[in-house]
Amino acid sequence: MNIFQIKKQLRSRWKRWRRAIWTISACGLVAMMAWIGLLLSEQMEDLMTKEPIVQETLGMIMDAAAPSEPPKEWVETLMKTDQARIVHLNKIYTCGEESDVLGIMRPEEVASLLKEHPDWEGHLGAGGDVWLDERINGLSDICKRNGYIGIDNMGNLSLFEGPPKKEKVLKTFFQLDVETMESVLPDEVLKQLQEGIRIQDVEEYNSVLSTFSDYALEQTEKVMQQN
C-alpha cells in the first residue's frame, strides 16, 4: 500500500469522525436547550402559583406608604391632644339633612373612622366637639315622608316639611323674581308653587329646582351656584 492510499484512508476516516463529532455535538446542544427550557417552564409555573404572595407583599408596601391618618389640618390639631370628644355625624342628603351622635371617641378613633370613610368632611366645633359631614345622593326620611318645595312669605324658593302654609322651612334656595313669574307663568303653576310641590324622588327634586332657577334673582342665583 503506497503513501497515497494511506492518506486517502486517513482522510476518509477523518470525515467519518468529524461527522460523528458534529452529530454528537448537535444532539448535546439540543438536549441542553431542552433542559434549559424545562427549567424556565418550572420557574414560570412557580412564579404563577406564588402570585397571591406577590400581591400581598405589594399591598403591604402600599399600606406602609399610605399616610396613617387623614391629611387634614383639624385632624392634626385633634391628634396633638389626648382628649376624648363627642362626635356628631351630619348626613347631608340631596333633599334634607339628618344628624346623629356617634358617641365619645378618642383622637385615634376619630382618625381611624375618617380613614374608613375618606369622603367624609369634618371640623372641630367651637365647644371642642367633632362634626362630620356625609353627603348622600338621595332623600332624607323627612323629604320622603313630607317634603315640599314652595315659596315662602319673602318670595324665596324653599324646602318645607309639609305644605308651605305650615311654614316649617328646612332649607332656602334662592329668592324668586315673583313679578316676572306672574307675567309669564300660568296661574295654575303659581298656585301649585304656593301650595307646595310634593317631592317624590331626587329626579323630581332636581327638576323643580332647575325649572324655577330660571326665575331666580341674579344675586341669589350667583350665591346658589357658589354653594
TrEMBL record:
The keyword DNA repair does not apply. Residues 139-213 form the Bypass of forespore C C-terminal domain. Coiled coil: none annotated. It comes from the Bacteria. The chain crosses the membrane at residues 20-40. Pfam families: BofC_C. Keywords: Membrane, Transmembrane, Transmembrane helix. This is Bypass of forespore C C-terminal domain-containing protein.
